[in-house]
C-alpha cells in the first residue's frame, strides 16, 4: 500500500511539473506568436466559434529591410518561415515601398513574389520610436488575387541606415 501511494504521488508530481513547464506568461518578451494569435484568433477560428475557413487563414511575413537605396527607396527580401495558412509565402520574394506620404506617414509596400504580387499599407513611425502598426491588404494579383485582410506589424532596426527586420502577422481571406 505504501509503495502504491509513493508511486502515485511521484507520478502526480511529475504530471504537475510538466503542466507547469508548459505554461507561460502572455507578455511578448522574446516570445513568438502565430499570425492567428497576434490577430486575436485561434487556428480553429475566433472567439465567436467560426471555423478557420470563415474567419480566414493566419499570415506571417518576415522581412529583412535593406538600407535605403541610391534613390532613397526602402527595399528588402521576404525571409524563409513566412507563411499563409500551412503554405510558404513568397519564397525568394522581394519588396519595395512606394513613396511615404509625409502627412500620414502611410507606407505602401508591394511584395513581388514568383507567383503574384501582394500590396499592403501600414503607418511608419518617426525615427527613434518603436515601429508598430496595423496593416491591411490593398491590392492582390496572381496567386493572391482577391485576398483581403490585415493585422499588426512590428520592426526592429539594426542600424541607423534603416536596416532591420520586420514581422507582419494577421489573418487573410480569399
Key descriptive features of the protein:
single chain; 174 residues; globular
* H and E string: HHHEEEEEEEEEE
Q: State the shape.
A: globular
- Average pLDDT figure: 76
Give the strand order, joined by hyphens, for the main sheet: 1-2-5-6-7-8-9-10
List low-pLDDT spans. 4-53
For the record, give the distance between the C-alpha atoms at the N and C termini, rounded to a whole number.
Answer: 62 Å
The profile of the biggest β sheet is: 8 strands, antiparallel, barrel
Counting DSSP H or I runs of 4 or more residues, the number of helices is 3
- CA radius of gyration is 21 Å
Produce a short descriptive summary:
With 174 residues, this protein is α+β, with helices and mostly antiparallel strands. The protein has helices spanning 2-22, 35-38, 52-55; strands at 57-65, 75-78, 83-84, 87-88, 94-97, 106-113, 116-123, 131-142, 148-157, 164-173.
Provide a descriptive summary of the structure in words.
With 174 residues, this protein is an alpha+beta fold. The chain is 17% helix and 40% strand. The chain has helices spanning 2-22, 35-38, 52-55; strands at 57-65, 75-78, 83-84, 87-88, 94-97, 106-113, 116-123, 131-142, 148-157, 164-173. Strands 1-2-5-6-7-8-9-10 form an eight-stranded antiparallel beta barrel. Strand 7 (116-123) and strand 8 form a beta hairpin. The longest helix is centred in the N-terminal third of the chain and has 21 residues, at 2-22. The chain is globular. The termini are far apart.
Amino acid at each position: 500500500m505504501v509503495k502504491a501511494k509513493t508511486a502515485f504521488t511521484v507520478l502526480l508530481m511529475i504530471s504537475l511539473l510538466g503542466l507547469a513547464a508548459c505554461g507561460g506568461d502572455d507578455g511578448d518578451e522574446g516570445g513568438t506568436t502565430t499570425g492567428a494569435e497576434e490577430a486575436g484568433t485561434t487556428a480553429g477560428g475566433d472567439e465567436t466559434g467560426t471555423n478557420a475557413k470563415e474567419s480566414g487563414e493566419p499570415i506571417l511575413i518576415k522581412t529583412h529591410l535593406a538600407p535605403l537605396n541610391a534613390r532613397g527607396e526602402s527595399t528588402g527580401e521576404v525571409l524563409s518561415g513566412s507563411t499563409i495558412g500551412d503554405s510558404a509565402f513568397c519564397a525568394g520574394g522581394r519588396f519595395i515601398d512606394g513613396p511615404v506620404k509625409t502627412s500620414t506617414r502611410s507606407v505602401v509596400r508591394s511584395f513581388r513574389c514568383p507567383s503574384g504580387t501582394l500590396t499592403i499599407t501600414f503607418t511608419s513611425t518617426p525615427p527613434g520610436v518603436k515601429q508598430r502598426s496595423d496593416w491591411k491588404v490593398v491590392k492582390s494579383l496572381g496567386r493572391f488575387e482577391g485576398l483581403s485582410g490585415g493585422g499588426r506589424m512590428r520592426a526592429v532596426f539594426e542600424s541607423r541606415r534603416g536596416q532591420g527586420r520586420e514581422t507582419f502577422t494577421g489573418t487573410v481571406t480569399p
